[in-house]
Amino acid sequence: MSMKIEHDLHRFRQIVKGKIRENLRKYVTHGEMIGRKGRDLVSIPIPQLDVPHFRYGKNGSGGVGQGAGEPGQPVGQGEDEASGQGQAGGDPGGHVVEVDVSLEELAQILGDELKLPRIEPKGKANIVEEKIRYSSIRSTGPESLRHFRRTYMQALKRQISSSTYNVVDPMVVPIREDKRYRAWTSHPLPDANAVAIYIMDVSGSMTDDQKHVVRTEAFWIDTWLRSHYQGLERRYIIHDAAAKAVDEHTFYHTRESGGTRISSAYKCCLELLNTTFSPTEWNVYIFQFSDGDNWGEDNQQSIQMLREQILPRVNLCCYGQVESPYGSGEYLRTLKSALGEEFDNLVLSEIKNKEAIFDSIKQFLGKGK
Amino acid sequence: MSMVKEIRFPAHLAEIQRQMEGHARSYGLDFFPTIFELVDCDQLNAVAAYGGFPTRYPHWRWGMEYEQLSKGYHYGLQKIYELVINNDPCYAYLMTSNELTDQKMVMAHVYGHCDFFKNNLWFAHTNRKMMDQTANHGNRIRQYMDRFGVDTVENFIDACLSVEDLIDIHAPHIRRTDDRPNAAKPQLDSPEEEDPDAPIPGRLKSKDYMDSYVNPRHVLAAAAEAQAAKNAYVERRFPAEPMRDVMLFILQHAPLKSWQADVLSIIRDEAYYFAPQAQTKIMNEGWASYWHSTIMTRHGIAPSDLICYCDHHSGTMATSGGRLNPYKIGLELYRDIEERWNRGQYGKEYDEIDNYETKRQWDTKAGLGREKIFEVRRVHNDLTFIDSYLTLDFCRQHRLFSFGFNPGSDAYEIESREFPKIKERLLFNLTNAGRPMIQVVDGNYKNRGELYLEHHHNGVDLQMNYARDTLTNLCRLWARPVHIETMLDGAGVVLSYDGSQHAQRAVEKAA
After folding, report:
1. How far apart are CA B24 and CA B291, in angstroms?
2. What's residue A334's pLDDT?
3. Band of pLDDT at residue B180, cut at 50, 70 and 90
């Protein structure tokens, strides 16, 4: 049964999505929803979704309560003032509605708003997997697949048509011919595997602010890629003068103090590609974040690795340069002059501050690769 | 009436209903026929989201309510036990998953509410066919949505809802003005009818031969002139008297299309219908709780029901986090009144006793308690109820305290346990159902057709961001700039919105 309320609920969700869309830039920038992430849902606080009225503010407001306590002691803030009789005006101001949005919807909103093209997975012709679906019914099959309801339905039909069905004492007994079984059909499904490799410079010059930017941006990239690839794999590499593969938590919470050698990260990344994620079977995405400082002599080696071994094999290689008070920002220019024209799957983006995340995401994902 | 898919009302519940109705009647409760409907939790949440009326007009905020209710239910945070509609017949909803003891308790509770709806004076002017009325409203609004588009109509409803609390909650009982939507278009050029018997201003009664002495001609002339000036002044004012029913004023004078006027009047009707419920929350819930506890403890519970009943009754009465529970406070006040009138603890003689012991043991065996609480439920609303019957002893016994906002710590803190302070806070929050008092003082401000409202400030400032958003919506209705005069941090200010931007300025001192 569909209830009328479904209609209003749908309407409410639509409005919520509209609000998210309106405020997307803010949400993207502040990254406040990263902390509110469940498995498939994010809770988004939406201000001003209730109907405005003239109402009392906090100053001078109060009410009457019941129970123990001395004057001067704080009372439990009337969090849900809805039922709080004698509490009107005792509401702590922020009546914020929080709604759950699925990551998929969020990705869609992001995509719509940034006008991101759908990603074309590469090599989908090669990688095909058979998926089985139980979608039909047959009259033979193993007992474990017997369709209980259909079987009895068939038995009932037979009994009625052969007038052996007794209304007063109804008893339906299926015989062999009545039995119905679930049957499957197999569908070839192109299975697009994808891996996102995040590389971050954790040398001394990267501060917490920069990491926050990286983290926010990574969240949105994840969200977008995940809506295109089921089972997106993620790998994290941190480096200073040496690189290592780490888990997500370590990735965001490590701070080293050494120098910077970007080629070490590329080496680590190549190892992954050679061992686990062969680019013939995987769509590979590389997102590298750094403040642009590299040890001078290393530039050449890095560029060579990119040109010869990495760029030809991956879908997309994104380099995001966050501005830090200590970094020189050299590396971006180096890359641009060396490789800028050569490869169209190399994207370079400068992320000056939090506000620039929005545009940077567009640059990274705008290619549809 | 099929509003939601009904689950057939089972015979054993019908039997319980018959018993409960019998008990309720035996105590003199007087109610409309009551129809119970059995619904599951989703249906109950849906009906509750609609404010009890499943046939209400479509609007997104019901969806929002529903989502919050059903989340709360599914996370196990809250559960609606009872939902009853002020209508003739009364509709009440029972949840299928409730235990039998709960169903008994809810039924007894519901009969309390029905009696209150029918007999409390503040409900006397509510529409008792509201169930049908809301369905009509729903249809009308749906038609408008078909014709003018869902977004257009919904946006307009949003604007109307912003002013839904700007009504005159006493208007149904007083009839200050003709409140038909088209009634009060000012007839600007209607010729004044001269009344030959009209008293001459300033004239004193006198015998004929003394008249020229008692009422010298030049004095009369001056008085006539003053009167004329005053009349002219009153005529210039629009509205003539400040008007509390801002919704009505807009309805009568704003340039609304006919469908818009209809939508606004629908929302106004519903606001008036719901107003008494906000005015009598403590009394209504207290009354229903009084009767469910009386009926259940004397007749309703079998030994096997006892634990369940006690658990749920105490759950309903619980006071948590220092918040006042209207069920609890209402129930205890009725009991207190009953006890006092049973023992004759009222009136001059009793009040003048200054010995605590004598006062405590005072008992005239008057036995008027039951009669008194029936009278109380008939004539009072929360405001007058608390004003008349909240006593010092009661406050002490129930450990009431008043709390206030401390800007320093940005928290609400306990202020005092003194009786006058507590009563003052409580009365303040019950006055005008806890809403700021706002009235139209000028519908032709600066002679430019702008709307000028005045907030009758009594100690608490308006919340500014809400006030500005409300002005925005108000401006959409009025279609000309709107202003509200209020106080902020002790100084008079006028907030304005002219359709594109907000402004705030100090009040000009009237000469």
Report:
1. 8
2. 84
3. low
Residue B176 has pLDDT above 80, yes or no: no
Tokens of B140: 């009308």
Is residue A256 within 8 Å of residue A207, measured between CB atoms?
A: no
State CA B314 to chain mean position distance. Answer: 27
b/e map B178-191, b = 16+ CB within 10 Å: ebebeebeeeeeee
One-character DSSP codes across A227-274: HHSTT-EEEEEEESSSEEEE-HHHHHH----S---HHHHHHHHHHHHH
**Are B325 and A77 inside 8 Å of each other by CB?**
no
Q: Is the pLDDT of residue A225 over 80?
A: yes
Domain with B495 in it:
436-506
The full set of domains in chain A, from first to last, is 1-50+94-115 (no CATH), 128-188 (no CATH), 193-365 (3.40.50.410)
Number of Cβ within a 10 Å radius of residue A34: 15
Residues B114 and B40 grouped into a single domain: yes
* A95-99, A344-348, B141-145: range with lowest mean pLDDT: A95-99
Q: What is the ipTM of this complex?
A: 0.81
Q: State whether B419 and B448 are in the same domain.
A: no
pLDDT value at position B478?
94
pLDDT score, position B56: 92
CB A21 within 8 A of CB B66: no
For residue B381, which of B279, B272, B277, B275 has the smallest C-alpha distance? Answer: B279
| CB contact B412 to A (< 8 Å) | yes
**Which two three-digit tokens encode residue A15?**
């409005």
The predicted structure's pLDDT at residue B350: 87
Terminal Cα-to-Cα distance of chain A (whole angstroms): 43
Q: What is the pLDDT of residue B436?
A: 93
User: What span, in angstroms and rounded, lies between the C-alpha atoms of B63 and B58?
Assistant: 9
- Domain assignment of residue B233, yes or no: no
CA B197 to chain centre: 44
Decide if B269 is inside a domain: yes
Please tell me if residue A163 touches chain B, with a CB cutoff of 8 Å: no
Q: How confident is the model at residue A84 (pLDDT cuts 50, 70, 90)?
A: very low
DSSP for residue A78: -
Judgement on whether residues B414 and B446 belong to the same structural domain of the protein: no
Strands (E), B203-305: none
In the block, residue with structure tokens 């220092």: B322
Higher pLDDT, A326 or A179: A179
- Asked if residue B251 lies in contact with residue B261, where contact means CB atoms within 8 angstroms, the answer is yes
List of chain B residues whose C-beta atoms are within 8 Å of the C-beta of residue A19: none
Of B226 and B333, more confident: B333
Distances (CA, A) of A283 to A110, A304, A342, B231: 21, 22, 20, 85
Q: Which residues contact A46 (CB under 8 A, 6 or more apart)?
A: A16, A19, A20, A23, A96, A97, A98, A99
Q: Are residues B175 and B256 in the same domain?
A: yes
Structural domains in chain B (count): 4
Checking if the pLDDT of A94 tops 50, the result is no
d(CA B448, CA B205): 45
Q: pLDDT by residue (tens digit) across B375-394?
A: 999 999 999 999 999 999 99
| Mean pLDDT computed over A225-236 | 81
Q: Is the pLDDT of residue B155 over 60?
A: yes
Residue A165 burial by Cβ neighbours in a 10 Å radius (0-12, 13-18, 19+): middle
Interface with B, mutate which of A1, A16, A17, A51 (most B CBs under 10 A): A51
User: How far is it, in rounded angstroms, from Cα A105 to Cα A125?
Assistant: 28
- B43, B398, B473 member nearest A3 (Cβ): B43
Kindly report the three-state secondary structure assignment for every residue of B99-133: CHHHHHHHHHHHHHHHHHHHHCHHHCCCCCCHHHH
Q: Hey, of B405, B427, B456, B475, which one would you mutate to test binding to chain A, going by the most A CBs within 10 A of its CB?
A: B405
